[in-house]
Amino acid sequence: MKKRLAALFAALVFVLALISGCSTSKEEVNVYNWGEYIDESLLKEFEKQTGIKVNYSTFTSNEAMYSVLKTGGAHYDVIIPSDYMISRLISEGMLEKLDFSNIPNYSLIDDKYKNLEYDPTGEYSVPYMTGTVGLIYNKAMIPDEIDSWGALFDERYAGLILMFDNSRDAFGVALKYLGYSLNTTNPDELYEAYELIKAQGAVRQAFVMDQIFDKLESGEAAIGPYYAGDYLIMLENNPDLEFVFPKEGTNRFVDAMCIPKGAQNKKNAELFINFMCSTEASLRNMDVVVYTSANREASEQYAAMLDDHAKAILFPSDEILANTEVFLNLPQDILNLYDELWVKIKS
């Protein structure tokens, strides 16, 4: 009798789970994001609203994220790569098409961020944040007025210089300084950039990603390239820091939420993406990560709260934006060359 009651109870639980749309296979979502790139209290809020557990982990670069996905070392449901990497993932069949019926908040995304070159059909990604890259330097340690990427190769600042610890951004800095496109496919230009980064070793303190926060805030280093939003966070801890858009031009990026091919919790992933697109979540997120949300309402509301300096950094003028480039996906032979030259630089 007890066994029969237990069986009936188990069946009832199963039916209720089906009715509620929750089953043990759909109670979690695995999210893979850049470091320092989300208000983590939102993860708990999503769990509270949906009952779906968020397993959250971070990567340091697009290339590191790609390597993890390519080797199958881990399984993720939501990833947040940058524009050019999204294009590469699409071309290699590594992303799922999205079911936008589960993402109604997509309507809140500003149209200017939709259907861009990296995802022209708009089937594989939902824009998350956008921003620019520039030079951050300590005015108390470097009294000179900085306006060029050339400062990163200047022997006067030997031992105080930081550089991006990923190939695309590091080469991007060198290419712009040399007067070339971020998206060059000319091997000679890439070799020239390689020689410049290699020679920088004589004055460079370290390659960094998130480590730049501690180094610049503490004064351990004095200058480095990084993302505009992160500068505003560092500025709170070190008011001597300054940000500049180099005169040679720079990178403008869009990061977007995607679902890797074969994701085990696709619907939950779409529910998570929808949650992150809401105006409330986008506003809270902007206040923590200090980047420009792709949510139109949140972006407008946040801009109205900023002082003139912060607004100029997060919402650059048309003149500055006209001197920016978006990274594009490159032919495989050029990607192989990047890998080859980067290994030589790091070895």
Mean of residue pLDDT?
92
Estimated helix fraction: 40-55%
Instruction: State the CATH architecture of the largest domain.
Output: 3-Layer(aba) Sandwich
Number of domains: 2
Largest sheet geometry: 6 strands, mixed
Q: What would the CATH topology of the largest domain be? A: D-Maltodextrin-Binding Protein, domain 2
Query: What is the H/E string?
Result: HEHEHEHEEHHEHEHEEHHEHHHEH
Return the CATH class of the largest domain. Answer: Alpha Beta
Low-confidence stretches: 1-25
Which secondary-structure class do the elements indicate? Answer: alpha/beta
Short synopsis of the structure:
The protein has 347 residues and is an alpha/beta fold. 42% of the residues lie in helices and 17% in strands. Strand 1, helix 2 and strand 2 form a beta-alpha-beta unit.
Structure description:
With 347 residues, this protein is an alpha/beta fold. It has 2 domains: 24-130 and 254-303, D-Maltodextrin-Binding Protein, domain 2 (3-Layer(aba) Sandwich), CATH 3.40.190.10; 131-252 and 315-346, 3-Layer(aba) Sandwich (D-Maltodextrin-Binding Protein, domain 2). Helix content is 42%, strand content 17%. It is built from 14 helices and 11 strands. The protein has helices spanning 2-20, 41-50, 62-71, 83-91, 167-177, 187-200, 212-218, 228-237, 266-277, 279-289, 296-303, 308-314, 318-321, 332-346, and strands at residues 28-34, 53-59, 78-79, 126-138, 161-164, 204-208, 223-227, 241-244, 250-257, 292-293, 324-325. Strands 4, 7, 8, 9, 10 and 11 form a 6-stranded mixed β-sheet that branches. A 3-stranded parallel β-sheet has the order 2-1-3. The radius of gyration is 22 Å and the shape is globular. The protein starts with a helix and ends with a helix. The model is unreliable at 1-25 (pLDDT under 50).
